[in-house]
Design brief:
Length: 304
């Protein structure tokens, strides 16, 4: 990113996945938020206003204003939306030295999207006269190549607004230090892999606290579970090699231009082993100066 470049965050994704809520959060973070912008107006919106060579004020006698950080919502509802055109305009933004563009894609499980539309009794924008699920399937097919261009894919299937706000702040706060931002997510294999994960690691080889009655109701955030997992002879050599591997990889991700990396650690129930290792790993990486966010996706579930 060039010094002084203006941040431009494009926000797209599945209808019902939370784009409007995300834009409101970004507006609270001091972005200029614009929703449902026609693609044909994107280049005009990101064009800096400059004074003339003679220093004459802009038309109307007003002083020209420099661009400020902006978040722009563009999706399948947009009047002239077309995937190839969107990708072309995104590439054009990435080639400009005066801008620091990023692309956030919000995704969500089809079943959750269907529930959201039916609960609110809203029609899907791509299926006005057809069942909601037809619109969801059509939109997913329409956007699959757009999704591949995203710098960050955020799955909102199990995400409440406070969690969305926290993640957006971690990734996009204007005072965030440049460099690689790491998010560590613990999860339950029973509920499937996190869609946003870049790297997935299985913690089920560690002995399971669930089978100790006193530890069963606890989580990996509790000292008893931490002591139990740490006492497993397999833990110490694993964790030493695990952190060494990541510390060797992370600089390459950063130098390669990647700004967001999500590590997913799973176990059977998502509340004991994966939670503890995620906590320990986050602490180890923070000690070495990395920006790390931590999320326990399934910690509230019943167990393993």
């Amino acid at each position: 990113m060039s010094e002084g470049a203006t941040r431009v965050l494009l926000v797209s994704g599945m209808s019902g996945a939370g784009k409007s809520s995300a834009l409101k959060v970004l507006e609270d973070l001091n972005y200029e938020a614009v929703d449902n912008l026609p693609l044909s107006l994107l280049s005009r919106l990101t064009r800096a206003e400059r004074p003339s060579a003679e220093g004459v004020p802009a038309a109307g006698g007003r002083e020209p204003r420099p661009l400020r950080a902006m978040a722009v919502g563009i999706d399948a509802r947009t009047r002239d939306f077309e995937p190839d055109a969107f990708i072309a305009r995104l590439r054009a933004l990435r080639e400009r030295r005066d801008l620091a563009p990023a692309f956030l894609y919000l995704d969500c499980d089809d079943a959750v999207l269907h529930s959201r539309f039916t609960t609110t009794r809203r029609r899907h924008p791509l299926a006005a006269d057809r069942p909601v699920i037809d619109g969801i399937r059509h939109e997913r097919q329409l956007l699959y190549r757009v999704r591949e261009q995203a710098d960050l894919v955020m799955d909102t299937s199990d995400m409440a607004l406070p969690e969305l706000r926290r993640l957006l702040t971690e990734h996009y706060a204007l005072d965030r230090k440049p460099g690689l931002t790491i998010t560590i997510t613990s999860f339950s294999y029973r509920r499937g892999l996190p869609r946003e994960a870049d790297l997935v690691f299985d913690m089920r080889f560690l002995r399971n606290p669930y089978y100790v009655p006193a530890l069963r109701p606890l989580t990996g955030e509790d000292a008893g579970v931490a002591a139990y997992v740490t006492a497993d002879p397999a833990f110490a050599p694993f964790f030493e090699r695990f952190t060494a591997m990541l510390l060797a990889l992370l600089p390459s991700y950063s130098s390669g231009g990647k700004t967001y990396l999500t590590l997913a650690l799973g176990c059977t129930g998502g509340r004991h082993r994966s939670v503890f290792v995620a906590e320990r790993l986050a602490a180890a990486l923070r000690e070495r100066g990395f920006e790390v966010g931590l999320r326990h996706r399934d910690i509230g579930d019943g167990g393993e």
